[in-house]
Amino acid sequence: MKLFTLSLSIFLISFSSLSQDETKIKEIGLNFYNFDNYGLFYKVGSETKLWRFRVLSGGIGINNINGSFPRTNFNGQLNLSIGRERRREFAPNLDFVSGVELLTNFSYFESNGSNPSSSFQLGAGIGGVFGLRYEINETFFAGAEILPSMMYSSRNGSNISAFDINFQFNTRALLSFGIKF
Fold it and tell me: pTM (2 decimals)?
C-alpha cells in the first residue's frame, strides 16, 4: 500500500507541474516493446521538452492446458509510466531523445487446477530514455528507444509463505509510431 501511495503522490506532483508548461504540441501513438509487447503513449509539451505518459504496456493471457493435470492459467499485467523527455536535433527530421521516467507495474497470476494458486505483484522504479525520433512528415513520426530501468517489486500469493521483494535492472527496446497534432 505504501508503494501505491508513493506512486500516486509522484503522479500528482508530475501532473500538477504539467499545467505550468506552455503546451505547443501533442503526440499519440503505439509502442512495441522487444517485439513481444505493445502499448499506447501520449506526449505533450514544447518542441524540445515533453511530458510522456505510457499506458497499457502489458496484457492479459488465458491458457487452457490439457493433459494429466488439466488447468487454466490467467495472468494480467499493466505498466504505467510518467516521464520527461528532451529532444535535440541530430540531423534534419532526426532528433536525439533523452529523459527519465517513473515506472509502476501491477500484475496478477491465477492458476486453477489440482493445485490452485494466485499471486499479486506491485512494483515501482525509475528508468532512463535514450533514442532517436524520425519525422516522416509534419504529422507522422517513428522512434526507437532504449529504456534501462531499475525496479523494486513486492509479490505475495496463496502458495507463498512470505513476501518476495526484489530489485531488477532491465533494458527494453521500444519502437514507436505516432501522430503529432
Answer: 0.75
